[in-house]
Specification:
By secondary structure, this protein is mainly β. Helices cover 11% and strands 43% of the residues. The chain has three helices and 17 strands. It is globular. The N terminus is likely disordered.
Length: 293
């Protein structure tokens, strides 16, 4: 999603003479009777969570993560640590796209740690990440699951701002994702797109890379049991443009797509979520109201 009112390329450069932001957020969810509650929250710097929301009853706690500065500049660091106790359920999203601004040199970073106890369910459904040309960023995500916990999470990455005539041609974007169950690593994925690398243009344009698309999406599902027929149902979801594919592995399902539009990618992932949630969690998919604002 590339809005016309995004800052210009010149305005997006991190200003000199200002200290970078350091932000931390630590959330702990618990099951208390029939209710999932945010039992503990701790924050440092400009990273917050809005009040608990229960749009579908007490069993699932919805939380909206807010980063008041609105964008991540060179030198900024964000650390998010989320833990779900046994039997608790939470859905976390964001109010808008995360913007990674270009940097004159300092690297920005984000670390995300998600930990689920037995029978916990977490839906990690943030809105898009928009990476400006010249951004320098490193992201790490570590997901630790117990035997019977369920995780549904997605990531939508928009490289550059085509609506503003901007491609991602410089800077460096690095990303690592690891998923563990009972201490055994089930998934490891790493990506590196750097303007200093002569292979960058090949990666962006090659059919073996991004094939000329500027938006890529990944949806990762981890559950002890994936019902028969779920893969076929998900493959029946229609992407309005671009290309997509879904793979099933033991205890995992990975869905990917490439497109020119963040809206197209998100619409496809919402279709998948509307199938996955009832099948794995036993409840209908109720989209957060913030997605419609």
């Amino acid at each position: 999603m590339f809005a016309a009112d995004l800052p210009s390329a010149a305005a997006s450069i991190a200003p000199t003479g200002f200290a970078p932001w350091r932000a931390e957020l630590d959330l702990r969810y618990e099951r208390r009777g029939a209710r999932s509650v945010l039992a503990q929250r701790r924050h440092l710097g400009p990273l917050r969570v809005q009040r608990d929301l229960y749009p579908e009853g007490e069993g699932i706690c919805h939380s909206i993560l807010v980063h008041p500065p609105g964008g991540i500049a060179g030198g900024d660091s964000l650390a998010i640590d989320i833990s779900l106790g046994a039997g608790s359920a939470a859905l976390l999203t964001t109010p808008g796209a995360a913007k990674w601004y270009r940097s004159r040199g300092p690297q920005a970073s984000q670390s995300l740690r998600l930990q689920l106890a037995e029978d916990a369910m977490l839906e990690w459904l943030p809105q898009e990440s928009i990476v400006f040309d010249g951004a320098r960023a490193r992201l790490a995500c570590d997901i630790h699951l117990a035997a019977r916990s369920v995780f549904i999470g997605w990531d939508v990455l928009c490289l550059g701002r085509p609506a503003a005539g901007e491609q991602f041609l410089s800077g460096c974007w690095q990303q690592r994702l690891q998923l563990w169950r009972n201490g055994e690593r089930l998934w490891l994925e790493q990506a590196r797109l750097c303007g200093e690398d002569p292979l960058l243009q090949t990666l962006l344009t090659s059919p073996l890379g991004l094939a000329g698309y500027s938006v890529c999406g990944t949806l990762l599902v981890a559950a002890e049991h994936l019902p028969d027929g779920l893969l076929a149902a998900c493959r029946g979801c229609t992407l309005s443009e671009g290309r997509s594919g879904i793979t099933r592995l033991p205890g995992l399902m990975v869905a990917r797509c490439l497109a020119h539009s963040g809206e197209a990618v998100r619409a496809w992932m919402v279709q998948l979520w509307q199938l996955l949630r009832p099948a794995l969690c036993g409840v209908p998919a109720v989209p957060p109201r913030i997605w419609s604002t």
